[in-house]
UniProtKB/TrEMBL annotation:
This is tRNA-dihydrouridine(16/17) synthase [NAD(P)(+)]. It comes from Euphydryas editha (Edith's checkerspot). Residues 16-270 form the DUS-like FMN-binding domain. Residues 369-378 have a biased composition (Basic and acidic residues). The lineage of its organism: Eukaryota, Metazoa, Ecdysozoa, Arthropoda, Hexapoda. It comes from the Eukaryota.
Length: 468
């Protein structure tokens, strides 16, 4: 079953997923330090990658220790995908085709999971890329509702030349609050049908989940995305202290820089449990507005200073839910890296329905009370306007101490207030007239009549000398 190339890269079992704005070089190196045996680059747009050298430089940095590495592309043109693959084949161990992205941007661009219905085109893309480069072509896909169709889909990609398949056990409709549980049954059925190496993706929150998935599905490796973001040491089987792993990441970023938006996103996920407490709003705001590495380090240090005594057992921690830090309690304290647990799709649907009912009830109340103080009926149009006005922020009262004291222009015939910075104590109109008539400047009103006239004289003199 194992391909020769897969054996050469060590038959990796612990895989960091391709994540847009998240699986950059610094993050990959951090994960490799903590148990990851294979990493993917973020998804790269093949069309832009082939045309824009700046895009290639900014989005595909790598290093000697960043191996084994799989580069992922998205696109829908076989020739363009093949050309993009040729540009990276010397710097990676395989090239992946993104057939799993379910986002609306992928739908508009017709790539990712929105190509899974066009099997002829997919076969052409895999075949064109396989013929263009010397490294293997792999695919990352989502499942169909039907296990049988999902198996046929995987077999088609294998027959087209795919050398490794990653199966995310969710359909393209399962995303955001409707993500739900990934189907390992689909993954297991596909594993039994194909002969190429295969990774599973979905339902991984800790190392125990990895081993359960390997045992149940018999895949070659397990890929983690969300679980890896909240705990970059997930494959090491530990839950590190959040500020320690965050500072380690920032040290790597110093050597391999990346956009601040990437750093901010990573730290928000590492500290996600800490920020559920209102007492940490100051640190959350500092992270949201951080502009450089020093700012990001300050966030980590402030959180460390706040929780270090609790972590060392020198102070008692109560998370307001009656949970105490004792040896047999399995609930982790907030400063420890831990999975982000989504509410179920059923709970989300119930929540949205409840909010909709509350909104409808509020509207009904408003409709029943659309009368003014004299009990006259207010039109819907006027009521909407009044609601808009009521939502406007309250304007702060003017500081009477800092307002002008009522002085007016020194020109006796002028009733206008004088300019606050005018050196002649005039309003702007009178000041402009005075400067024009007397060849003056007023820095307060930024009127530069004298300066511009002198400049014009010098320019005219220069022209005259040149003509002579």
């Amino acid at each position: 079953m194992d391909s020769e190339w897969f054996a050469r890269i060590g038959r990796p079992r612990f895989v960091v997923a391709p994540m847009v704005d998240a699986s950059e070089l610094a993050w990959r190196l951090l994960c490799r330090r903590h148990g990851a045996t294979l990493c993917y680059t973020p998804m790269l747009h093949s069309n832009v990658f082939t045309k824009d050298a700046k895009y290639r430089k900014e989005n595909f940095p790598t290093s000697p220790e960043d191996r084994p590495l799989i580069v992922q592309f998205c696109g829908n043109n076989p020739e363009t995908m093949a050309a993009a693959a040729k540009l990276v084949e010397k710097d990676c161990d395989a090239i992946d085709i993104n057939l799993g992205c379910p986002q609306s941007i992928a739908k508009r661009g017709r790539y990712g999971a929105f190509l899974q219905d066009d099997w002829l085109l997919l076969s052409q893309i895999v075949n064109a890329m396989s013929n263009a480069v010397s490294v293997p072509i792999t695919c990352k896909v989502r499942i169909f509702e039907s296990i049988e169709k999902s198996v046929k889909y995987a077999l088609m990609l294998q027959e087209s030349g795919c050398k490794l398949l990653t199966v995310h056990g969710r359909t393209r409709e399962q995303k955001g609050p409707l993500t739900g549980i990934a189907s390992w049954q689909h993954i297991k059925a596909i594993r039994e049908a194909i002969s190429i190496p295969m990774f599973a993706n979905g339902n991984i929150q800790c190392l125990q989940d990895v081993h359960r998935c390997l045992d149940y599905t018999n895949v070659d490796g397990v890929m983690s995305a969300e679980g890896n973001l909240t705990n970059p040491a997930i494959f090491e089987g530990i839950n590190p202290v959040s500020w320690e792993i965050a500072l380690e990441y920032l040290d790597i970023v110093e050597q391999y820089p990346c956009p601040t938006s990437f750093i901010r996103g990573h730290l928000f996920k590492i500290f996600h449990k800490v920020f559920t407490y209102e007492t940490n709003n100051e640190e959350r705001q500092l992270l949201a507005t951080a502009q450089n590495l020093e700012d990001f380090k300050k966030v980590c240090i402030k959180i460390r200073n706040k929780y270090l005594l609790f972590h060392q057992g020198e102070a008692y921690f109560d998370n307001n839910e009656g949970i105490t830090r004792i040896a047999f309690n399995l609930i982790l304290p907030p400063w420890i890296c831990q999975p982000y647990v989504r509410i179920s799709p059923e709970e989300h649907t119930e929540k949205m329905e409840r909010l909709s009912r509350e909104h409808q009830n509020n509207n009904n109340i408003v409709k029943r009370t659309n009368n003014d103080s004299k009990d006259n009926t207010i039109s819907r149009k006027k009521m909407k306007k009044l609601r808009r006005i009521s939502r406007r922020p309250t304007k702060p009262e003017l500081d009477t101490q800092n307002r002008r004291n009522g002085e007016i222009c020194v020109n006796e015939t002028c009733p206008n207030p004088l300019g606050g910075k005018c050196i002649y104590q005039l309003c702007k109109k009178c000041c402009r007239n005075k400067c024009f008539e007397e060849d003056l400047d007023c820095k307060g009103h930024r009127i530069l009549v004298h300066t511009r006239r002198e400049t014009a004289k010098k320019f005219a003199l220069q022209k005259e000398n040149e003509s002579c």
